[in-house]
Design goal:
- This protein has a single domain, classed as Four Helix Bundle (Hemerythrin (Met), subunit A) (Up-down Bundle), CATH 1.20.120.
- The relative contact order is 0.17.
- The two termini are 23 Å apart.
- Helix 1 runs parallel beside helix 4 and helix 3 runs parallel beside helix 5.
- The longest helix is centred in the middle third of the chain and has 29 residues.
- The protein is elongated.
- The protein is an all-alpha fold and 128 residues long.
- The protein contains 5 helices and no strands.
């Protein structure tokens, strides 16, 4: 497995577990019955859990582009220092984004998102 595919595996793993804390909060706040059902007026989640849910959605939305680029680069046999570095940094930037978004730190949230986006751009440029 290439370094890029390993990074993709880690990004997918991260995205696959991001939901756990805010679902636990949902169960604690709303109770199991409402958490698995469709209550008319659900109790709001804790602010951190609301932000965490948004961060998770953002991660999944951006995973589509990242995964497509990594898979295209792999299919074309393109692997170099730039692709390896961009993939590694992408993982850490997405983890940072999740944590600082959940903590409600606006400037760091934007910075970590931008770093991850620049990694996507770097991968895209390798295709050209």
């Amino acid at each position: 497995m290439t370094n890029e595919l390993m990074s993709l595996t880690w990004v997918i793993t991260l995205s696959a577990v991001m939901w756990v804390p805010y679902i636990v909060n949902t169960i604690m706040v709303q109770g199991l019955k409402d958490a698995v059902g469709y209550p008319d007026n659900p109790k709001p989640l804790a602010p951190w859990a609301q932000r965490m849910k948004k961060a998770h959605y953002n991660a999944v939305e951006n995973l589509v582009m990242f995964a497509a680029l990594v898979l295209m680069l792999n299919a074309l046999g393109i692997s170099n220092a730039t692709t390896v570095m961009a993939c590694n940094i992408y993982f850490w930037a997405r983890l940072a984004h999740y944590l600082v978004y959940s903590a409600g730190i606006p400037w760091l949230r934007t910075l970590s998102f931008t770093v991850a986006w620049l990694c996507v751009v770097a991968l895209l440029l390798q295709l050209f």
